[in-house]
């Protein structure tokens, strides 16, 4: 079970969180013309990375904040975690 | 029965407490502190079971967790448990156990015919033989093989035992209480670190209980006892015996199974049977020791052949002689230690040493005691069927290829030692890259991936002095880092005998013309010949060899077989062992009861049960409940002998003709506040929200980004920047997360707060033509007329002194209201409604009547919004704004969603107006068509229309728009029904929606 450092609450076990997928996906702006391909990429197409992956988790049984977690999908190592509005450098 | 093999005044058992037990129906005696294995051996019982594949007689091979085959079916306090190792099961008064894998008995086993057919049962036999005909596998081959193989039978009864889970955090978790575990725990504890020390056996001390060493001028055993006693007094230390750490998972999470009650005749009141510990440790010290490995020779599975360390443990811990004419077969000094113990207790052993001329203090001691030692000698094969009677022995050449003349040597047990294998399972599970250590022919932990350190024998260090030195210092260093304390520990002086180099010899060659079975893996009946076949047939990867032959699989996980298997592959393949590599060690290290893993989350405890504040009232008024997600909701209120159908019909009818009240507390409620609240709603709902006035509610539909309907519900504008959103019961949590996702990540610029208020409000839906009259009496000071409170209107009212929210919304299609009060007043509200409603013939109605009412009105619910439908499919396309953008809008342009013949909701009536259509039935054009009959749609919900008194269903049907009036068939192969039906409008009752506005 992963041990995730919630930037708001501190170290908590994985069972307090719910997974939210790739954090690098950007939703196209509202009221903007979007091509079929662009929209498909946003809704469906995801890379199934092996290695470092920036992903979303929600601290659902804690502060309810969505956070970003930089994690290795193969080794499960967590490198860094970020608040929702923090820029990932 | 006397305990003929018990030695006086030796061992750690309590001879004052005699215990009786039964094995295979026969009564025996043992002592408190015995295991089932030691008690049986004390009584001279060596035959415990039959082997997995060939049904060969099997006895005891180890003395603890290393035991590959002495598993029994255990009976305790009216329960039975399979797969219990006799070497681990502690004896208690009245214990009963039976042999497994034999029929009709362990002494005469019909399945043993396999042993004589063994040339026909090599590796891969099942794969090759039972392939044809294909259909035979499930019906004939598989059940037969299942019956013939296996180790014990699981109980089919409900388990009465209780199991607990516990979560723990610590600085240092130490696995194993041998010398390295004790030393590191002690050093860390002295520095004030929070330490958990776990030992799988009942007694602490590990190898110190059986080794002949001296620490700090006392025996190893006494030193261990002193350390444990001191650790137990320290508040920062938890020491646990009977506790096996069986799994090492991500981020230093380890799981330990504590046997709380297995050593007792019955579990004590309020005690669990087992306790599963989830331990998150900052540092893990693996001091799991090592397991002696066998030397492979002919018929090495005969009862009476066992590890020399096991023989020593039976003698030193339990005071049991495993034989009176022991033969010790060794390639290192450990065999000598066992022989010396035998000699000290009046038994004359013979040592066969594969080495030519080894020299060490231990060997000198054996020689001084006058023990008969034969150098450059091997056991070629064991003789005897159910017990060792003698051994074929022979001298062996320098190159270990040529055997001398075979001699027959009388003996009653063969104690074998092929040196030691570090127990690296936990380290390997943690992701440690293990490395091969030439000096000991075994793998040891290498580069750690997590915060884990392996100590002592588990790390391939067999010198006690070196082990203690390292362990004290590692315990000190790690705890110093965590606690910043630095207490110095005096390392005690150690007296131990020096050993000489072991011999790398591991397998005795077959003499010419002999075909003895030489077993590598005793649990899975894998012999040398099986691995040879696998390699001959082209399996190269050790992982493939493992799967083809079953070497190192199952509950044993290759504890005694792993390295010998690798040696064999490396010899045949002409590779070095590290090039062959080892297979992956997987948790659990030893079998764990399923009950312990499940814990207390069984039956009703598997999820929370949520009840509305009016639950007690429902219960008192004969409500029959149904699970709605985690909620319990009244399905119907039973009167007299009514069944579900009759009661729900009565309740629904009463709503259509008078007034009914339904508990709607379970609906999800979300409070939305902030200047941008309207903008948020406008983005998440498909319809327009910017112009909703204060005091008005609106029905809204929300989509996922892929265009599929996510949820529906009404949202009311309470104040300027304050909205009250309702969701379906099932989607409440998901909708909240959905809103939080967009507010926190996508549109953080919106100034809005959302919070769940589901539990803050109790809700009652009052529905029926008389509902306004009732409402007026409940709220005499409020104007609830059609003008004062129009359809989709909202006011606050005073319910006999309690503040209430009144919404004019309807799910039933009747004139209806929903009243909300703070949860604590829920029951008050309900009782008032019932009391005041009496004159209007009010009746409570449950979810079944609620369904009936919404189905015949054509209102969609979860069965239509099933995660596969878009607004159009539900005839809700009118709610999709063409002007503004919203979540999922772009997806609605997908060609499949805009197809001319897109599926759409319709009503379905059986032609005979009598036959109810099962939900899930498929709609087809031709009931006689060849299979697969093309499906046009499916029945999503069915009811008995109380308005028209005939069955009515909703369906999602291809080209539903143009199908009204068409005749189809509803087919349910599940219920074996074919029903001719007519397609009608989904709005079966009051299609213009006049009632809700009346």
> Pairing-aware structural class of the strands and helices of chain A?
mainly beta
**Spatial order of the strands forming the largest sheet of chain A:** 3-4-5-6
Number of helices of chain B: 23
Number of domains of chain A: 1
Kindly report the CATH topology of the largest domain in chain B: FAD/NAD(P)-binding domain
N→C terminal distance of chain B: 92 Å
CATH architecture of the largest domain in chain B: 3-Layer(bba) Sandwich
Q: Fraction of residues of chain B in helices?
A: 10-25%
Tell how many strands the DSSP assignment of chain A holds: 6
The top-level CATH class of the largest domain in chain B is Alpha Beta
**Gross geometry of chain B:** elongated
Form type of chain A? globular
Strand content of chain A: 35-45%
Radius of gyration of chain A equals: 14 Å
Number of helices of chain A: 1
Structure, briefly:
With 89 residues, chain A is mostly beta strands. Helices cover 9% and strands 37% of the residues of chain A. Chain A has one helix and six strands, in the order E-E-E-H-E-E-E.
Give the topology, please:
The complex is a heterodimer of chains A (89) and B (998).
Chain A: E1 3-6, E2 10-13, E3 18-22, H1 36-43, E4 52-58, E5 66-72, E6 78-83
Antiparallel strand pairs in A: 1-2, 3-4, 4-5, 5-6
Chain B: E1 14-23, E2 26-32, H1 36-42, E3 49-50, E4 57-58, E5 71-76, E6 79-85, E7 95-99, H2 113-116, H3 125-129, H4 136-148, E8 163-175, H5 179-190, E9 195-198, E10 214-215, E11 218-219, H6 220-232, E12 237-240, E13 243-249, E14 253-259, E15 274-286, E16 290-292, E17 305-307, H7 308-318, E18 326-330, H8 334-344, E19 350-353, H9 361-368, E20 372-375, E21 377-383, E22 390-395, E23 407-410, E24 413-417, E25 420-422, H10 425-429, E26 433-437, E27 442-447, E28 452-454, H11 464-483, E29 494-495, E30 519-521, E31 526-527, H12 528-536, H13 542-549, H14 562-573, H15 577-580, H16 594-598, H17 615-620, E32 623-628, E33 631-637, H18 644-657, E34 660-663, E35 668-673, H19 677-684, E36 697-703, E37 709-719, E38 722-727, H20 732-746, E39 753-756, E40 761-767, H21 771-778, E41 794-799, E42 802-807, E43 816-822, H22 826-837, E44 843-844, H23 847-857, E45 904-910, E46 922-924, E47 937-945, E48 950-957, E49 967-972, E50 977-984
Parallel strand pairs in B: 1-7, 8-9, 8-15, 9-12, 15-28, 17-24, 18-19, 18-24, 19-20, 34-44
Antiparallel strand pairs in B: 1-2, 3-4, 5-6, 5-7, 10-11, 10-29, 13-14, 14-15, 16-25, 21-22, 22-23, 26-27, 30-31, 32-33, 34-40, 35-38, 35-39, 36-37, 37-38, 40-43, 41-42, 42-43, 45-48, 45-50, 46-47, 46-49, 47-48, 49-50
Helix pairs in contact in B: 5-6, 5-11, 7-8, 8-9, 12-14, 18-23
């Amino acid at each position: 079970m992963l041990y995730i450092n919630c930037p708001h609450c501190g170290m908590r076990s994985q069972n307090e969180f719910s997974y939210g997928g790739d954090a690098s996906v950007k939703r196209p702006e509202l009221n903007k013309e979007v091509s079929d391909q662009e929209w498909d990429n946003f809704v469906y197409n995801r890379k199934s990375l092996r290695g470092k992956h920036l992903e979303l988790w929600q601290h659902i049984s804690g502060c309810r904040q969505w956070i970003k977690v930089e994690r290795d999908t193969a080794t499960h190592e967590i490198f860094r975690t970020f608040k929702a509005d923090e820029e990932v450098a | 029965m006397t305990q003929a093999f018990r030695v006086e005044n030796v061992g750690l058992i309590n001879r004052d407490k005699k215990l009786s037990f039964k094995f295979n129906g026969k009564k025996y005696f043992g002592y408190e502190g015995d295991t089932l294995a030691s008690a049986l051996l004390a009584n001279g019982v060596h035959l415990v079971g039959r082997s997995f594949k060939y049904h060969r007689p099997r006895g005891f091979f180890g003395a603890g967790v290393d035991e590959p085959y002495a598993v029994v079916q255990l009976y305790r306090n009216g329960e039975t448990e399979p797969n219990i190792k006799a070497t681990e099961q502690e004896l208690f008064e009245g214990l009963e156990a039976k042999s497994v894998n034999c029929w009709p008995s362990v002494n005469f086993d019909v399945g043993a015919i396999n042993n004589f057919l063994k040339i026909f049962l090599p590796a891969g036999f099942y794969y090759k033989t039972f392939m044809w005909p294909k259909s035979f596998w499930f019906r004939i081959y598989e059940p037969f093989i299942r019956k013939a193989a296996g180790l014990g039978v699981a109980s089919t009864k409900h388990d009465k035992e209780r199991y607990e889970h516990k979560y723990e955090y610590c600085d240092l978790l130490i696995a194993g209480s041998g010398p390295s575990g004790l030393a590191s725990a002690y050093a860390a504890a002295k520095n004030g670190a929070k330490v958990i020390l776990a030992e799988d056996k009942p007694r602490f001390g590990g190898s110190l209980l059986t080794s002949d060493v001296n620490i700090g001028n006392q025996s190893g055993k006494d030193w261990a006892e002193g350390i444990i006693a001191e650790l137990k007094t320290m508040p920062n230390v938890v020491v646990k015996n009977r506790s096996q750490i069986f799994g090492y998972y991500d981020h230093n999470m380890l799981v330990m199974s504590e046997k709380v009650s297995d050593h007792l005749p019955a579990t004590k009141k309020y005690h669990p049977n087992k306790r599963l510990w989830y331990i998150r440790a900052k540092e893990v010290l693996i001091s799991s020791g090592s397991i002696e490995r066998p030397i492979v020779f002919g018929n090495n599975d005969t009862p009476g052949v066992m590890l020399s360390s096991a023989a020593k443990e039976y003698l030193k811990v339990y005071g049991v002689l495993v034989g009176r004419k022991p033969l010790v077969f060794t390639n290192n000094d450990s065999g000598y230690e066992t022989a010396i113990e035998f000699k000290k207790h009046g038994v004359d052993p013979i040592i066969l040493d594969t080495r030519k001329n080894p020299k060490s203090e231990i060997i000198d001691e054996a020689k001084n005691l006058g023990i008969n030692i034969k150098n450059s000698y091997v056991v070629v094969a064991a003789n005897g069927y159910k017990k060792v009677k003698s051994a074929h022995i022979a001298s062996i050449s320098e190159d270990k290829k040529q055997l001398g003349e075979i001699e027959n040597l009388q003996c009653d047990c063969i104690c074998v030692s092929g040196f030691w294998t570090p127990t690296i399972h936990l380290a390997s599970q943690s992701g440690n890259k293990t490395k091969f250590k030439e000096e000991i022919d075994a793998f040891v932990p290498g580069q750690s991936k997590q915060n884990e350190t392996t100590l002592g024998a588990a790390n391939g260090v067999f010198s006690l002095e070196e082990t203690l030195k390292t362990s004290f210092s590692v315990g000190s260093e790690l705890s110093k880092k965590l606690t910043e304390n630095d207490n110095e520990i005096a390392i005690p002086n150690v007296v131990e005998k020096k050993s000489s180099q072991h011999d790398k010899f591991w397998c005795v060659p077959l003499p010419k013309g002999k075909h003895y079975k030489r077993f590598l893996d005793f649990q899975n009946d894998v012999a040398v010949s099986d691995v040879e076949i696998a390699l001959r047939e082209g399996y190269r990867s050790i992982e493939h060899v493992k799967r083809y032959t079953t070497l190192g699989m199952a509950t044993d996980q290759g504890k005694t077989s792993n390295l010998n298997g690798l040696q064999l592959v490396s010899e045949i393949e002409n590779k070095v062992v590290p090039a062959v590599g080892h297979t992956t060690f997987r948790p659990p290290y030893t079998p764990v009861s399923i009950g312990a893993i499940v814990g207390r989350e069984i039956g009703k405890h598997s999820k929370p049960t949520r009840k509305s504040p009016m639950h007690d009232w429902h219960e008192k008024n004969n409500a029959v409940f149904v699970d709605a997600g985690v909620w319990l909701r009244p399905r119907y209120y039973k009167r007299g002998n009514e069944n579900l159908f009759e009661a729900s019909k009565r309740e629904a009818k009463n709503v259509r003709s008078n007034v009914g009240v339904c508990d709607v507390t379970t609906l999800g409620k979300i409070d939305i506040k902030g200047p941008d609240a309207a903008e948020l709603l406008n983005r998440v709902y498909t319809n327009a929200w910017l112009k909703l006035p204060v005091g008005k509610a609106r029905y809204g539909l929300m989509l996922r980004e892929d265009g599929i309907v996510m949820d529906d519900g009404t949202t009311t504008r309470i104040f300027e920047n304050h909205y009250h959103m309702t969701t379906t019961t099932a989607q409440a949590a998901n909708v909240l997360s959905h809103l939080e996702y967009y507010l926190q990540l996508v549109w953080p610029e919106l100034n809005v707060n959302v919070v769940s208020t589901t539990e803050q409000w109790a809700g009652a839906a009052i529905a029926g033509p008389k509902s306004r009259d009732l409402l007026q009496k409940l709220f005499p000071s409020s104007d609830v007329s059609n003008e004062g409170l129009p359809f989709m209107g909202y006011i606050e009212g005073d319910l006999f002194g309690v503040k209430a929210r009144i919404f004019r919304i309807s799910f039933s299609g009747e004139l209806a209201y929903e009243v909300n009060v703070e949860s604590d007043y829920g029951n008050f509200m309900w009782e008032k409604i019932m009391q005041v409603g009496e004159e209007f013939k009010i009746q409570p109605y449950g979810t079944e009547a609620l369904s009936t009412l919404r189905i015949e009105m054509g209102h969609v619910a979860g069965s239509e919004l099933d995660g596969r439908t878009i607004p159009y499919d539900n005839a809700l396309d009118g709610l999709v704004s063409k002007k503004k953008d919203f979540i999922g809008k772009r997806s609605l342009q997908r060609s499949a969603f805009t197809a001319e013949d897109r599926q759409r909701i319709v009503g379905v009536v059986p032609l005979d107006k009598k036959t109810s259509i099962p939900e899930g039935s498929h709609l087809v054009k031709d009931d006689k068509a060849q299979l697969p009959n093309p499906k046009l749609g499916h029945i999503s919900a069915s009811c008995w229309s109380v308005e028209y008194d005939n069955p009515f269903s909703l369906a999602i049907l291809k080209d539903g728009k143009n199908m009204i009036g068409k005749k189809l068939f509803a087919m349910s192969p599940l219920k074996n029904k074919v029903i001719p039906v007519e397609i009608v409008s989904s709005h079966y009752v009051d299609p213009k929606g006049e009632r809700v506005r009346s």
